[in-house]
Design brief:
By secondary structure, the protein is an all-beta fold. Helices cover about 0% and strands about 55% of the residues. The protein has one domain (about 25-125): Immunoglobulin-like (Sandwich), CATH 2.60.40.
């Protein structure tokens, strides 16, 4: 990582200067996809899976799953199978009418580096004419 930051001061001789910060950034987790986007027609059940892979250097366990809204989007946590490290979240959406659905899934972990993971979920239901409500 390489970031350049403009620093402004009240020093009349050095009113501003650039500070460059360089460093190695370790990934703690890979979430794929990072954001869920689903679309369909009213009456259709939409389903997808999100894969959560802890970095080998920073293993963790997911302790709890919750959602911000009690919506037509439902999430289910699937722990890794024996010998595997990938967690999955099964995401389901359903609407009987043209609608825009949104929710945020929060995963609580035992990691001090990433105690919470968030997954945003969007589901759009278009009517027969291709319009949403």
């Amino acid at each position: 990582m390489n970031k350049r930051i403009l620093v402004k001061t009240d020093d009349p001789k050095n009113k501003q200067f650039y500070l460059t910060v360089t460093g190695q950034v370790d990934s703690v987790v890979e979430i794929s996809p990072a954001t869920v986007s689903l679309s369909g027609v009213p009456g259709e059940s939409l389903e997808t899976y999100v894969t959560i892979t802890p970095a080998e250097k920073y293993p963790f366990t997911i302790k709890e799953i919750s959602q911000r809204f009690d919506s037509q989007i439902k999430a289910e946590l699937i722990p890794p199978k024996d010998g595997e490290k990938d967690w999955q979240v099964k995401v389901l959406a359903h609407s009987d009418k043209a609608d825009d659905l949104y929710d945020v899934i929060t995963l609580k972990t035992d990691s001090t580096l990433k105690p919470k993971l968030k997954i945003r979920v969007y589901a759009i239901y278009f009517d027969e004419s291709g319009k949403k409500s």
